[in-house]
């Protein structure tokens, strides 16, 4: 069993949170939802209520084996916070399993660690990744060592399979 951190805030794309979390839990992984404030409830774009387990100020990257960043409007808000960016940066630097879908890869741009990494994302995010030095591919799932990225909810079956497989 792996311990997986999930970074979210309000306006996350509901299915990009619920579907991967369900797949990860079904595979026996332990999920910790992290936001700015522990104990609060964030709301997805379509009304899903998500209880926050821990505040970003109360966790360390070394407490987790992997990281999930769902899309929606959440990643754009999270990337404005230095603690969130540093948390993500730690996973990339340590080559820990790191998963992001749709707008999730926006957080990678803030880390300065996209250069030369193979990635995909939502079509409006792909140019940003490219200009940040990533090798961008328009595929359902792109796996670059322990970094797994995906484009949209349409790709969730492939994304979920890839993230579960990466943790084996």
Task: Give an account of the 3D structure.
The protein has a single domain, classed as Class I glutamine amidotransferase (GATase) domain (Rossmann fold). A seven-stranded mixed sheet has the order 5-2-1-6-7-11-10, sandwiched between helices. It is of the alpha/beta class and 168 residues long. The longest helix is centred in the N-terminal third of the chain and has 13 residues, at 14-26. Strand 1, helix 1 (14-26) and strand 2 form a beta-alpha-beta unit. The chain has six helices and eleven strands.
List the defining traits of the structure above.
single chain, about 170 residues, alpha/beta, two-stranded antiparallel sheet, DJ-1/PfpI, transferase activity, glutamine amidotransferase, Class_I_gatase-like, Glutamine amidotransferase
């Amino acid at each position: 069993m792996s311990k997986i951190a999930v970074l979210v805030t309000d306006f996350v794309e509901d299915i990009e949170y619920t579907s991967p979390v369900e797949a990860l839990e079904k595979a026996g992984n332990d999920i910790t939802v992290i936001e700015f404030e522990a104990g609060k409830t964030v709301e997805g774009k379509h009304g899903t209520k998500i209880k926050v387990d821990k505040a970003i100020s109360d966790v360390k990257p070394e407490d987790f084996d992997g990281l999930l960043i769902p899309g929606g409007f959440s990643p754009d808000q999270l990337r404005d916070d230095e603690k969130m960016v540093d948390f993500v940066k730690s996973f990339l630097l340590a080559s820990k399993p790191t998963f992001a879908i749709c707008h999730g890869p926006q957080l990678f741009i803030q880390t300065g660690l996209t250069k030369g990494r193979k990635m995909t994302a939502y079509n409006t995010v792909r140019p940003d990744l490219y200009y940040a030095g990533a090798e961008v591919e328009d595929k359902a799932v792109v796996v670059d060592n322990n970094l797994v990225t995906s484009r949209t909810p349409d790709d969730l079956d492939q994304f979920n399979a890839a993230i579960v497989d990466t943790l084996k």
